[in-house]
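Support case: user asked for a sample of complex input and structure output to validate their parser. Sending the pair below.
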Amino acid sequence: MLAEFPFLSFVIWTPIIGGVAVLFIGDDSPAKAKRLALVVALLTFAFSLPLYGLFNSTLGTMQLQELSPWIPTIDVYYHLGVDGFSMPLILLTSFTTVLVVIAGWEVIQYRVAQYMAAFLVMEGLMIGVFAALDAILFYVFFEAMLIPMFLIIGIWGGPRRVYATIKFFLYTFLGSVFMLVALIYMYFQAGSFDILVFHDLKLDMQEQILIFLAFLIAFAVKVPMWPVHTWLPDAHVEAPTGGSVILAAITLKIGGYGFLRFSLPITPDAASYLDWFIISLSLIAVVYISLVALVQQDMKKLIAYSSIAHMGFVTLGFFIIFNLAENAPGSSGIPMAIEGGMVQMISHGFISGALFLCVGVLYDRLHSRKISDYGGVVNTMPVFAAFMVLFAMANAGLPGTSGFVGEFMVILSSLQANFWIAFLAATTLILGASYTLWLVKRVIFGAVANDGVAALKDINRREIIMLSLLAIMILLVGIWPDPLVSVMHPTVDNLIEHVTRSKL
Amino acid sequence: MTVALGASAYSVAIFHLMTHAFFKALLFLAAGSVIIAMHHEQNIWKMGGLRKYMPITWITFLVGTLALVGTPFFAGFYSKDSILEAVHLSQTPGHTIAFVAVLLGVFVTSFYSFRLYFVVFHGKERFNTEEQHDTHASHDAHDDHHHGGVPHEPPAVVTIPLILLAIPSVIIGALTIGPMLYGDVFSSSIFVNPEHNPLHPMAEEYHGWWQYALHSFINVNIPAFWLALAGAVSAWYMYLKRPELPGQIQAKFAQSKPLAILQTTLEQKYWFDYINERYIAGGGRLLGRGLWKYSDAGLIDGLIVNGTSKAIGWLATIVRRVQTGFLYHYAFAMIIGLLGLLTWVVS
């Protein structure tokens, strides 16, 4: 009976309707708006928790499905469902939104109700992207997501926010137009917009390659992959803390999720044919972007570049499987690569969110993101420094933190495919440690740099709660990743079956 | 330890790892005790004669030093001597070089350990009590027990661990050499090809810890004890008896070119740190900056992204001219267009 309850609809629409309600309270009583926003975020999180409990992790198929007609004339359905890929990402989204609401509590003074409402609506749309099983429904959520983010950066952003928003919008919009064309083409082939029907659609090689490239443009911009990544550092630098957290923790994952939901199962032959291309771009992301991260002078930019490098591992894990399937069929590396990529996505959601919150904590106090404006923060903010060092270690992939698990799984499976791919991927262990530890050294340690640092106040209870929640998740996934990995096993097997079966 | 591994004496390596843990931990904590007493001064040339002021640290430090240099009956003796013996008996290629190097190491270890010991705990008192008192008392007057003029023993939280570590630093080797090397401790976990195992001949000559220590005084093949003693005596002679000697030797070194080069090489740690900092770290930063400025900001953002928007803007300024707002311009264009279309359709 419990499984009949439309949980997915509830986690999508609770924050959207709640967000609209927050908007109606308006800026006349910001305290009330904040409280309602927190209640809505917590309620959504509460609705999302049963997804884990009700999810049957022995099955790789879609679960908790909901189906009702939406636009019957063009066969568009309101079709929802989750598998082992989307369920953890939905939980990550509802968890992160709670943190974002807490993070903006005292910091946002300007148009509080609208700020909170934008994040709640954003949450509903992002969960919609992960839960949609109808291509048009997916596309609507995918595009609608741009609007609240556009407003978040454009209204509460930094000095160059207009440039950053336009860049962000055009980049992502350009990508998704190609996807829409691919979806419509497949509709004419299959007579349905159901994503699961697309999975069984026969397509010849030329069709597959064109569809693959259309999806690639859409998702590569989201991930982002080199060379279509330059919107991300600008968007992060200009976005308010909460916007950066959502951007890094969730929206980047939509790109990775898109590869799993569309590119790999729908066009496996094209993906296999072009895997070298994606692997090269991923390795460039790992090495080139890590070096660029090393020399950044702005903390947010550094973490933004580090995000790109870490997401390189995700795409590497997803596309190394074709090499493995050819050279070592049936090897344990194939499921491990995909699971590694997924773990890396979840882990990066926690770590990058945590680091952006840390930068936010410092920015709220000194109104600077420049590394050179800090130094010796540990002397005045010891509790904060402890958190920041933990998150930095996680970002560098220290064993025992979640950052290690995904990277290690991907490196291990790449090693079964090709030594040099694994070697280049593993350079991130050195480069990642270099840029993160150097950041920590310059910001946290050393002598107290200036009067601003000397007058810093350590984090308050609200900030401790927010950072502790992330620290717990990072350590939990790092020490005991099995609850996360085991829900994915059957889904990964299901995906591999699709991917290794030719669609020609 | 790695020498023991090279000689296939794996149990000896672990035995040394264990004894070393006790006396090295003791030495670090005793050094910490001295540093606390000296108000975070770590320069040994600003210490000296400390044995009068901090007897517990002094004695435990001496115990640690004696254990470290391999004084018979102390913990370090049993493990170090077993390593020497294993290397001596080993047939691995290069074992002679290893043996000579390890013996030389015994002398050098003893020399530098006792140099440290003599300079810190004996000799002239080179610390300035007055100055210490002035600088610290002024801003921290109520905490005067921590910033007193004369150095003194730190509280029990520091000294008790020293005592607790000093005891095993003396006895742990004598106690465990039997079971660990010649007993059953590793019999189910370490397996060595019998032909390469130096412990077999060693076991034949082993007659208990007492005999083992006594034998070291008269062992002609492995004069480790005498080398250690020589190291300690030369340290005493150069740093207590005639403290001007090291400076004179250094001055001699500076006069001869090859020796001076040797000295600089050693002082610069073979330039490893320099190469690392200058070329590896610096090179990485240079590469990163290049990729960022030229590729990311220059090519991708400057040319492709912003270039596209500029190109569209430029195109728009040209196309915009067509929109003049004059009705007769539009009417004229329509007529021309109509004519063109008609010609095309008719022909």
